[in-house]
Amino acid sequence: MISTQELIRLIKGPIAVAEPLAPYTGLRIGGTADYFIKPRDRADLCRAFGYFRERGLPFFILGRGSRLLVHEEGFRGTVIATHYLDRIVVDGEMVEADAGASIPAIADRAAKASLGGLGRFGRAAGTVGGALCRIDGSPVKEAGECLEWVDVLRNGRVRRLKNGELHASMGTQGIEADVILGAGFRLHKVSGRNRPAAPGHPPDTGAAHSRALSGRVFRDPAPQSGSGPSSAAELLDACGLRGATRGGASFSDGDPNRILNNGAASSEDVLELVRHASEEVRQRFGVVLELGLVLVRNNRNGTHVPFS
Questions:
Q1: Do 55 and 27 lie in a common domain?
Q2: Which long-range contacts (CB under 8 A, 24 or more apart) does 101-106 make?
Q3: Which H or E run contains 71?
Q4: Reduced to 3 states, what is the DSSP secondary structure of residue 269?
Q5: From the centroid of its chain, how far is CA 156?
């Protein structure tokens, strides 16, 4: 059982009770969490994590929430948000960022410092922590050689994974069990025509429109033989699913691997659309797409199967 008074003594950041989760997700769907904590810094995050882990209490760590789908019943546990862990430091050709720092903000700071080398990683959405803990490891591959080290909380101790140790851990169960605290990127100076432009914003995001937009719904499958569609977006588009609708949810016209909440979508609308798309791709191409959304209901978190 959670002691609110004990939490207040332990955690420096704000603590809310019965906090609505919908505003913290890309799709703007979902009920409340019993507790919602915003640690002030890395040490605060470590204390919060330790408190709930040691007591076996349900919790999950929230970044930007672009890939989060929360059921209307909400989450009977605690959400630990990394919103205050947004520090970005540029020192020469090194860029250090905390787990809650947004990747677009890092790319912007790098561009202003005439630094290049982030590659595809710099065009990703979400936060550093959210990207580096993805199970499929694709953001790690996109980071390439620029990812110098990652600070993690492992077995109650802060460790810095780097060089060979880092590459051996990324994209495996090893780092998935850790709490990402921050990362360092070694970039390179560019000038003149090679200077990276400040990243633009995607055309249809929830922040810019009344319609809310998810992160990538499906992970890209393993490369297939032949010259047909290979990415999840290409497979969905080839099945005519761009703009497909179920209830208040539809696949984006701009990116068929993202779902729009047109104002009144329910979690079941989203899941019905996901099921329909999965079956269409399976029947036409024989490819079983893996869900990239993280589904949250009651005290079940981090699952990658539809709500039961």
A1: yes
A2: 101/127, 101/128, 101/182, 102/64, 102/126, 102/127, 103/127, 103/128, 103/131, 104/199, 104/201, 106/185
A3: strand 68-81
A4: helix
A5: 23
Question: CATH number for the domain including 280?
Answer: 3.90.78.10
Using one digit for the tens of pLDDT, what is the confidence trace for 110-156? 999 999 998 878 877 789 988 887 644 455 555 667 889 999 999 88
> Tokens 């633009």 correspond to what residue?
200
Residue 41 gets the label, from left (phi > 0), alpha (psi -120 to 50) or beta, of beta
Spatial CA neighbour of 213 closest among 225, 202, 228 = 202
Residue-number span of the structural domain to which 128 is assigned: 88-194
What does the pLDDT read at residue 121?
A: 81
Closest Cα partner for 300 from 59, 123, 107, 111? 59
Helix (H) or strand (E) holding 167: helix 163-169
Q: Check residue 281 and give its pLDDT.
A: 97
Residues 63 and 94 in one domain: no
Tell me how crowded residue 76 is: count the other CB atoms within 10 A of its CB: 14
300 in any annotated domain? no
Q: How far, CA to CA in Å, does 250 sit from each of 47, 275, 277, 280?
A: 40, 13, 11, 15
Asked if residue 172 is part of any domain, the answer here is yes
Q: Domain for residue 43, yes or no?
A: yes
